[in-house]
């Protein structure tokens, strides 16, 4: 099954490269070449089993990936998160750590994954966890920027949800997030899908109501590019996460109570579908957190999004 995973991952990478080269209108930034060098060098050192690359390969690979993808976005659209808003790019990484800890909190009860090979020293473990978590949200958003830059998605018929429907979405989201915490742990371990959906239904209607960037706001104006780009981003990043995780010495193992015998890399096959709503959740939770931080620190502006 891992052979199929390698084929899908390489196909995703080749398609991204092909579409990027076909739409490239500007010079590829120097930091993108640095990212390619880091990624290629990291892969070589990983398979030579050179420490500490073997232990910190996952965050190293994703840091290099962010440099490459951001450079692609810059070359295609003329603007990008890292090149044009570096401070906000760093803030996105910091928020990513905090947002992922929400899911780690749920995992304490649901126990759907665990980590192995993490450095035993507190400093080494903190570096590995924080560095890895800081790349999650930026990777989803950057990849969505790149997909959106290809111009695949056109405007379509607006779909407007009534206030009652949006209110029902919020209630449904609350239930999704509450149920795994209220039922028996033996049952809760089957319910992480509710967590992947809960924050989407809970927070996006609120963001829409407050005039923030939102998926509901997009579809209400006929713009579905962000929605489709995020879904594709989740698919692409999901395969890359599992591909790079599989070879690293420090990695996560999934311990779902079902489908354990049917895996590609470390992930049960059906688990790859979870990356699609997870990408939506990353955008929605980041948008919410970004504006909350603005309210706390009294700053204005919109989250790093071109769409």
What do these coordinates show?
This protein has 307 residues and is mostly helical. The chain has one domain (2-297). It is 69% helix and 4% strand. The protein is built from 13 helices and four strands. Strands 1-2 form a two-stranded antiparallel sheet. Strands 3-4 form a two-stranded antiparallel ribbon. Helix 3 (57-77) runs parallel beside helix 6, helix 3 (57-77) runs parallel beside helix 7 and helix 7 crosses helix 13. The protein is globular. The protein starts with a helix and ends in a 10-residue tail after the last helix. The model has no long low-confidence stretch (mean pLDDT 90).
| Structural Rg | 19 Å
Helix content: 55-70%
Question: So how many helices?
Answer: 13
> Could you give the distance between the termini?
37 Å
Adjacency order of strands in the biggest sheet: 1-2
Mean of all residue-level pLDDT scores: 90
Secondary structural class: mainly alpha
- Beta content comes to under 5%
DSSP strand tally: 4
Order of helices and strands: HHHHHEHHHHHHHEEEH
The domain count comes to 1
Shape: globular
Oligomerization category of the chains in this entry: single chain
Q: Describe the biggest sheet?
A: 2 strands, antiparallel
- Give start-end ranges of low-pLDDT stretches: none
Q: What distinguishing features does this structure have?
A:
single chain; two-stranded antiparallel ribbon; two-stranded antiparallel sheet; 13 helices
SSE blueprint and pairings:
Elements: H1 2-23, H2 30-47, H3 57-77, H4 81-84, H5 86-110, E1 113-116, H6 122-134, H7 136-149, H8 163-182, H9 185-188, H10 192-209, H11 215-220, H12 225-247, E2 251-254, E3 263-264, E4 267-268, H13 275-297
Antiparallel strand pairs: 1-2, 3-4
């Amino acid at each position: 099954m891992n052979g199929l995973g390698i084929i899908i991952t390489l196909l995703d990478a080749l398609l991204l490269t092909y579409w990027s080269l076909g739409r490239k209108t500007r010079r590829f930034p120097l930091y993108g070449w640095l990212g390619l060098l880091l990624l290629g060098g990291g892969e070589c050192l990983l398979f030579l089993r050179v420490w500490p690359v073997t232990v910190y390969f996952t965050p190293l690979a994703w840091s290099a990936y962010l440099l490459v993808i951001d450079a692609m976005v810059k070359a295609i659209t003329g603007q990008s998160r890292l090149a044009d808003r570096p401070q906000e790019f760093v803030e996105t990484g910091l928020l990513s750590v905090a947002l992922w800890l929400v899911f780690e909190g749920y995992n304490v009860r649901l126990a759907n994954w665990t980590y192995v090979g993490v450095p035993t020293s507190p400093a080494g473990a903190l570096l590995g966890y924080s560095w890895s978590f800081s790349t999650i949200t930026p990777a989803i958003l950057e990849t969505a920027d790149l997909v959106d830059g290809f111009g695949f998605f056109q405007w379509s018929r607006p779909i407007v949800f009534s206030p009652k429907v949006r209110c029902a979405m919020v209630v449904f989201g609350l239930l999704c997030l509450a149920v795994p915490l209220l039922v028996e742990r033996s049952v809760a371990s089957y319910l992480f899908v509710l967590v992947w959906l809960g924050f989407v239904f809970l927070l996006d209607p609120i963001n829409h109501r407050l005039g923030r960037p939102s998926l509901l706001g997009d579809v209400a104006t006929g713009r579905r590019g962000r929605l489709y780009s995020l879904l594709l981003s989740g698919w692409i990043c999901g395969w890359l996460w599992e591909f790079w995780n599989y070879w690293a010495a420090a990695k996560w193992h999934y311990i779902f109570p079902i489908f354990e015998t049917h895996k590609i890399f470390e992930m049960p096959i059906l688990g790859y579908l979870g990356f699609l709503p997870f990408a939506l959740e990353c955008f929605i939770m980041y948008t919410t957190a970004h504006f909350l931080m603005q309210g706390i620190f009294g700053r204005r502006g919109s989250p790093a999004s071109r769409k």
